[in-house]
Each structure stands twice: as structure tokens, then as C-alpha cells.
Design brief:
The complex is a heterodimer of chains A (435) and B (238).
Chain A lengths: L13 H13 L4 E4 L11 E3 L20 E3 L8 E3 L3 E3 L9 H14 L3 E2 L7 H6 L3 E5 L8 H6 L2 E5 L11 E2 L6 H7 L7 E2 L10 H14 L6 E6 L3 H10 L4 E5 L5 E5 H6 L4 H14 L7 E5 L5 H9 L4 E4 L1 H7 L7 H6 L24 H4 L4 H25 L13 E3 L2 H7 L13
Parallel strand pairs in A: 5-15, 6-7, 7-8, 8-11, 11-12, 12-14, 14-15
Antiparallel strand pairs in A: 1-13, 2-16, 3-4, 9-10
Chain B lengths: L3 E3 L2 E5 L5 H13 L4 E5 L16 E5 L11 E7 L13 E6 L15 E4 L12 E7 L13 E6 L15 E4 L10 E4 L3 H11 L12 E5 L11 H6 L2
Parallel strand pairs in B: 2-3, 3-4, 4-5, 5-6, 6-7, 7-8, 8-9, 9-10
Antiparallel strand pairs in B: 1-2, 10-12, 11-12
The chains are: A alpha/beta (435), B alpha/beta (238).
Chain lengths: 435, 238
């Protein structure tokens, strides 16, 4: 009998074979939720040079470490004051369940930080739950209206997001139930094709006028953020600054989404690490660093991620997918339901189907009931709290009493790629890749 | 002093104020019970009468720029001239009448109320219209009613290429020629009710619906859900 040898092709791996056959069945591109599945250079590839003899650490349990953060100081009468430099990113009601949105709002309120609306407009319960709410102005303008605008604490004009820069979303009809369709003025059950650009302006010259319109509508009270997916970061950031943005929100390619073409997630945009470095350089070159604040997002998961982002020059970070994971996304419960979706815990990215086993990315009332608001609030609040503690610990260990005093010289790179992208020395050397 | 008060009516000269001051004045005057404001010399300035949420009658004597009346609710605006991009953007209720022509994106994403352009409108008129009534007595440019979701769009003249591309819902009426329909838009016969409503919309503007050979365009609903056999339609959809 011939010996049976199994060899995996590196060109046609099992994943590639599955993807080809899925396309053959569907006749279209593959749509899914979550973010990029591929490995990219990330903040993990940096480490802190914490205090020893040349630097003096602060006492962890005795000496204070400030985390207060101010966003939108450029033009607004009322900048956003946060107790911590960690915000909740925009995620729509429609993509997420009502319970998930309310829990995110309550958890953010407990931590003294902000949460953000999303495609679909402002949910009344979300406004009530969130002490500070950023109202997104998206290309679709679903549910966007002046009444809600006046209730916002900041406005975020969304140019794009890290998971799909340059592309629109595609929320499949199974999630567009009566309530979601009503908020978005769409026929119930229709596949919602979100536009990739704003309907009423094109380019940065128009954006400047658009920003002024929003300021006029809100009497110049609240800051205007501009959120972009990370691609040509330097030019985009400079143009957003020139257009009048108070805050730049930059989303790296590790950022998540409710539903889009898989090709965008895997093959467009640049990772958060180099995006952040270029954004800081752009603000410095434009002469507005410190005047226009920078919020970085895309795959931020831990206190060290937050600390490294701040050390590289961000004013705050924004967290999306990780906050959902904190409340139970991909948790090993309701295993049979994961199996029905053709997946399993830790590997699920079926947000687009509306059949989320843990009740987060769904509009099904029975599934949503699996996510009690109070429990989800505690999980997210605990998670955020742990990030702050980790951030403070690292800051103190670098000898600093304010998280915003972390700086580039506190970091070195572990890999050549990270050294080149972050423009930091390789650990143990004076060598900066590419310089 | 350029501010004149005639009983419940105020006249402002825009040349004397910044845009921010003009909009502040409009909101303050409305709160004080003034019902009509006449604005002189708008000079094509952007963002005039933005975010006004009172039943204030505002008349601009001259051309206005981008976003005139944008993000407003309940206001009544008349422009005795032409307007720039996105007049009445995201209007919630009320009315905007432009005596001249409109540039691109007239009535973009407007949720409610009525926007009347008594001239021609540029490309992408009624883009993502969400429930308002948009009337253009002249012609409209390419990709008008792109991604329209709800509402009524009445064009008495001709429509450019790709009218109603990727429309979800709502009704478009065209009195002149249509260069081409966009993906998922289709013609449908007019009903008696349609003619009745067209008369009701056009008569107040001094126009007769019967003088136009109206055609009705609605959503063909072929892009509601992807089917592999419809690939050619999706391929050509914007």
C-alpha cells in the first residue's frame, strides 16, 4: 500500500482552499465582521525601558499617577474632559444590540470616559447611559439629525475606518429588523450598502466648510473629531488639520468592523504602530502637536498597548473590538450556537450574520437576552479599569507621575520591522533600522 | 447700524456680520419672537441659516454658498438668487425655496420638509434623500437621487445620466427626458393619485403638472439582496 503523505501547500493552504470554494458558492466577495486575521507588526514589538539607576520609579501604591485627558482644545468652547485616556470607539446600534450599546455607555460613564455612536444614529438609551457621548457623522447619515447633534459632547466626522479604508460597509439584511430599518429609513430586511464617501462634500476644501457647518449647528460649543482609516497618514492628517479638525482619530488596519469585504480587512491600510508614528510626525510638521489631539485605535487590547501608544505621542486611545470581547464576544459559552454558524469560540467573526451566540452583534431579542446589561457593564468597566491600572503601573515604573509624560525615549523595539516603523532603536543597540 | 426692525420683521446686512454672528442673530431673533428676517448681501457665503430650529421666515436677497439651511428644522427660507452645494443638507422639516439655480447635492440626506429649486440643479441632486420632497423645476445633473432612501423627487425638466442609481425607496418624477437610469431604478406607470399629488406639489409654484410628460421612477428592488445571477447589475452599480 502506498504510504499516505499529507502536505500543506503554502500557496493553496486550507484557508485559501476554503476561501476559493466559498467564493465559488457565493459568486461574490466574502463578507465578515471582526478585523484583520493576519499577523502584522504591532505595539507588542516594543518594550519599555523602565526605571533602574538612571531613572527613579514611583511607588505603585503610594504615589499618584494622573490620567486626566483633554480632547478638543483647539476651537471648541467645551473640550471633552476624560478621567482616563481610553475611549470607546464608534460601533453602531444595528451592528450591536441595544444591550451592548447601553452597557458600553454605562461602563464608559463609570470610568469617566466617552463612548461613541455609529452608523444608525444616536440611541436614546445610549445617550442616557453615556455621560460623554461622541456623535458620529458618517457617510450614510442614517438617523443623523440636528436634535441629536445638539445633545452630543463631540462630533466625529468619519472619513473611514481601519478595517475598510476607502470602502463602505455591507450590513446584511438579517440584521436590518424593523427598529434598525426605521432608524436608518431603509426598507426592512434589505442588504444595507453603506456608502464609502460623504454625499454632500468631496475633498478637504469641502470638509473645511462641512466642519464649519457642524460648528454653526452646535454654536461652536463642542469639538469636531475627524476619524480616518490609516493609509497615506501624513498627508491625510495634515489635510484634516488644515480643514479645522480639533481631534484626529486614526484607526489602524487591526481595527474591527461589523461587516465588510474580507479583502479590505486583510489587504488595505497600514498597521496601527506605523500609522501612529506618522500621525505624530504630521502633527509636528504642521506645527499643531499638542494643539490638535490625536486618538489612536485599531487593535488596542491591553494597558501596555495604551502606554506605548501614549509614549509614541497619542493623547488617548480608542477601543472597539476589545471592549466587545470584555463583555463576552468569542466567550466559550453556547458552544452549539457557534457550531451552527460553522465556527467555535475564539475563532468567531460572524458579526455580520446577526446570529451572535453571546447576544452582542445581534438584533434578535432572544439572543440579546443572553447579554444582561448590568453584567456586561461590570465586565467592560472592570476591563477598562484594569487597563488604567496597567497603564499607571508602567508609567510609574518609568518614573513618571502623569501618563501623558510617557515619551519615545521610554521605548525600544524588539524586531527590525518595529524598529523601522516606530523609528526606535533596536533593543540593546543604538541601531534604528532605516536610519 | 444695519439692523432695521419693522414690527416682527428684521433686516440684516450680511456685509456687517460674520457667518457666526448671522446665525447667532437668526437663532436669537427667533427666540425673541421675531417671525421674519430679511438678509441683504449674502454674497455667496457658506453655511448661512444653518441649524435653525424655529419657524422663522428667512429671505436672502442674493446668492448663497454651501449648506444654506443645512441641519435646520421648521425654518422657512427663500433665496432670491442661486445657491451652492448641498442646499438644505439634512433638513428635518420646513421649506427652502431657491429662485435661481442650485449647485451639486441639492437636498442631500434631507429627512423632511420641502426644498424647491426654481431653476436647474447640478449633479447628485437628492443624493441619499431620506424623506423630504425635492422639486427642481429645471434640469438635474448626473447621478441625481443616488442612493435615495425615501421621499419624493420631482424634476420638471431633464435628468442626466444614472438617475436613481442604487435607489432603495421613494419616488422620482421626471417631466422631461431621462439620459439614463442608474442600477436598480425602473420606470413605473403613474396613477391617478400620483397626478393628484403632483398637482398639489406644483400648483403653489405656479406650475401645471399637465404641461409635463411625467415619468415615474421607483426602485426595482434587484439590489436588495445579492444573487449571483444579478452580477451584471451589481458590477455596474456605483
Amino acid at each position: 500500500m502506498e504510504r499516505r503523505v499529507l502536505k500543506t501547500s503554502s500557496t493553496f493552504s486550507p484557508e485559501v482552499i476554503d476561501a476559493i470554494q466559498e467564493r465559488a458558492e457565493l459568486g461574490r466577495y466574502i463578507i465578515r465582521g471582526y478585523g484583520a486575521l493576519r499577523n502584522v507588526p504591532r505595539l507588542d514589538d516594543l518594550v519599555f525601558l523602565t526605571a533602574s539607576l538612571t531613572r527613579f520609579p514611583l511607588e505603585g501604591y503610594r504615589e499618584k499617577c494622573n490620567t486626566k485627558t483633554l480632547l478638543g482644545t483647539r476651537c471648541a468652547k467645551r473640550p471633552v474632559e476624560l478621567d482616563v485616556p481610553i475611549t470607546i470607539a464608534g460601533m453602531s446600534f444595528g451592528a450591536l444590540s441595544r444591550n451592548a450599546k447601553v452597557a458600553l455607555g454605562r461602563a464608559a460613564t463609570l470610568l469617566g470616559t466617552s463612548t461613541t455612536t455609529g452608523d444608525g444614529g444616536m440611541l436614546a438609551a445610549e445617550r442616557e447611559a453615556s455621560s460623554k457621548l461622541v456623535y458620529q457623522c458618517l457617510p450614510s447619515r442614517y438617523g443623523f439629525n440636528p436634535k441629536d447633534l445638539k445633545q452630543a459632547d463631540a462630533i466625529e466626522i468619519v472619513i473611514g475606518q481601519g478595517a475598510k479604508p476607502g470602502g463602505g460597509g455591507l450590513l446584511l439584511g438579517q440584521k436590518v429588523n424593523k427598529v434598525v430599518a426605521g432608524m436608518r429609513t431603509l426598507p426592512e430586511g434589505v442588504d444595507q450598502r453603506s456608502p464609502s464617501r460623504h454625499p454632500d462634500w468631496i475633498g478637504p476644501d469641502d470638509l473645511k466648510i462641512k466642519i464649519e457647518e457642524l460648528r454653526e449647528a452646535t454654536d461652536w460649543e463642542i469639538p469636531i473629531y475627524v476619524k480616518m482609516g490609516a493609509t497615506r497618514v501624513k498627508d491625510d492628517v495634515k489635510l484634516a488639520v488644515k480643514s479645522g479638525a480639533d481631534v484626529i482619530v486614526l484607526d489602524g488596519m487591526e481595527g474591527g468592523t461589523a461587516a465588510t469585504q474580507s479583502i479590505f480587512q486583510e489587504h488595505s491600510g497600514i498597521p496601527t504602530l506605523p500609522a501612529l508614528v506618522q500621525a505624530v510626525e504630521a502633527l509636528q510638521e504642521a506645527g499643531v502637536y499638542g494643539q490638535v489631539q490625536l486618538v489612536i485605535s485599531g487593535g488596542i487590547r491591553s494597558g501596555p498597548d495604551v502606554a506605548k501608544a501614549l509614549a509614541l505621542g497619542a493623547d488617548a486611545v480608542s477601543i472597539g473590538t476589545a471592549s466587545l470581547i470584555a463583555m463576552g464576544c468569542n466567550k466559550p459559552v453556547y458552544i452549539e450556537d457557534y457550531e451552527k454558524l460553522g465556527t467555535e469560540p475564539h475563532h468567531c467573526h460572524h458579526c455580520h450574520t446577526g446570529l451572535c451566540p453571546v447576544g452582542i452583534a445581534t438584533q434578535d431579542e432572544d439572543l440579546m437576552a443572553r447579554l444582561p446589561v448590568e453584567e456586561a457593564t461590570i465586565y467592560v468597566a472592570n476591563y477598562l479599569q484594569s487597563l488604567v491600572m496597567e497603564l499607571q503601573s508602567l508609567t510609574r515604573s518609568c518614573g513618571k507621575s502623569d501618563v501623558h509624560n510617557l515619551e519615545r525615549e521610554d521605548l525600544v523595539a524588539l524586531t527590525l520591522e518595529a524598529s523601522a516603523m516606530a523609528k526606535l532603536p533596536l533593543a540593546g543597540t543604538d541601531f534604528v533600522m532605516g536610519q | 447700524m444695519s439692523e432695521q426692525v419693522l414690527l416682527d420683521q428684521v433686516v440684516l446686512d450680511c456685509a456687517d456680520f460674520s457667518t457666526r454672528e448671522i446665525n447667532h442673530q437668526l437663532k436669537t431673533l427667533a427666540a425673541e419672537g421675531i417671525t421674519q428676517v430679511e438678509l441683504l448681501n449674502p454674497a455667496g457665503r457658506h453655511n448661512l441659516a444653518v441649524g435653525v430650529n424655529a419657524p422663522l421666515k428667512i429671505r436672502f436677497r442674493g446668492a448663497v454658498g454651501y449648506y444654506c439651511g443645512g441641519l435646520s428644522d421648521g425654518v422657512e427660507i427663500e433665496v432670491l438668487g442661486s445657491c451652492g452645494w448641498s442646499v438644505g443638507e439634512n433638513l428635518m422639516s420646513g421649506s427652502i425655496t431657491v429662485q435661481g439655480n442650485a449647485s451639486a447635492n441639492a437636498g442631500a440626506t434631507a429627512h423632511g420638509g420641502k426644498i424647491c429649486i426654481l431653476g436647474n440643479a447640478g449633479p447628485r441632486a437628492g443624493i441619499s434623500l431620506k424623506g423630504a420632497t425635492l422639486i427642481v423645476t429645471g434640469n438635474v445633473g448626473y447621478s441625481s437621487a443616488f442612493m435615495m432612501q425615501q421621499g419624493r423627487f420631482i424634476i420638471c425638466g431633464n435628468a442626466g445620466p444614472s438617475l436613481g442609481d442604487s435607489i432603495y425607496d421613494g419616488e422620482i418624477f421626471v417631466g422631461g427626458e431621462i439620459d439614463s437610469l442608474g442600477a436598480d431604478a425602473r420606470l413605473e406607470p403613474l396613477t391617478e393619485e400620483d397626478w393628484h399629488r403632483l398637482k398639489a406639489d406644483l400648483n403653489p409654484l405656479g406650475l401645471s403638472a399637465e404641461q409635463c410628460n411625467f415619468k415615474k421612477i421607483v426602485c426595482a428592488q434587484e439590489l436588495y439582496h445579492f444573487k449571483a445571477k444579478d452580477f451584471s447589475k451589481w458590477k455596474d452599480a456605483y
